[in-house]
Amino acid sequence: MGNEKVVITVYGAEQICASCVGAPGSKDTYEWLQAAVGRKYIDGDVDYTYININESQTKEKHAEFVERIFAEDLFYPIIFVNEEMVAEGIPRLKTIYQALDKHEVPLQS
Predict the structure, then answer these.
(1) CATH code for the domain in which residue 42 is found
(2) For the chain, how far is it from start to end, CA to CA, in angstroms?
(3) 50-57, long-range: CB within 8 Å, 24+ apart, which pairs?
(4) Contacts by 61-67, CB closer than 8 A, 24 or more apart
(5) CA-to-CA distance for 17 and 61, rounded, in angstroms?
(6) Residue numbers of the domain that contains 10
(7) Which of 13, 29, 77, 79 could bridge to 87 as Cys pair (CB 3.0-4.6 Å)?
């Protein structure tokens, strides 16, 4: 993998997506994802970012994607591994793990 860290970005909101009633909230998903990834992979090689879609964004790429979420009525939370969207709505660990494997994030011993 080299020296580059993989970045997992979770876009979400305090309020649960209307189509995802009964699912955990975005912030809960963000915290759950850190715990799940940390159990399988060496956590020092992964950075995590949470983007609240209801707050103004200072980074252009986040602001543009938040606009897209509202314009296209995407389900959140939305999870990216680096620049690849790997989950929309209710995430599946298998898909996220496959993306991390593709980036050769080292496994725990």
Answers:
(1) 3.40.30.30
(2) 17
(3) 50/9, 50/10, 50/12, 50/26, 51/9, 51/10, 51/11, 51/12, 52/12, 52/13, 52/14, 53/11, 53/12, 53/13, 54/13, 54/14, 54/15
(4) 62/11, 65/11, 66/11
(5) 22
(6) 6-102
(7) 79
How high is the pLDDT of residue 107?
Answer: 95
Count of domains forming the chain = 1
Q: Does residue 11 sit within a domain?
A: yes
Tokens of 36: 């799940």
Domain annotation covers residue 20: yes
Residues 33, 39: Cα–Cα separation, whole Å: 10
> What is the DSSP code (8-state) at residue 3?
T
Q: Residues 5, 100: contact at Cβ < 8 Å?
A: no
pTM metric for this prediction: 0.91
Q: Tell whether the model's pLDDT for residue 35 goes beyond 80.
A: yes
Q: Cβ contacts of residue 28 below 8 Å, gap of 6+?
A: none
pLDDT at 64: 97
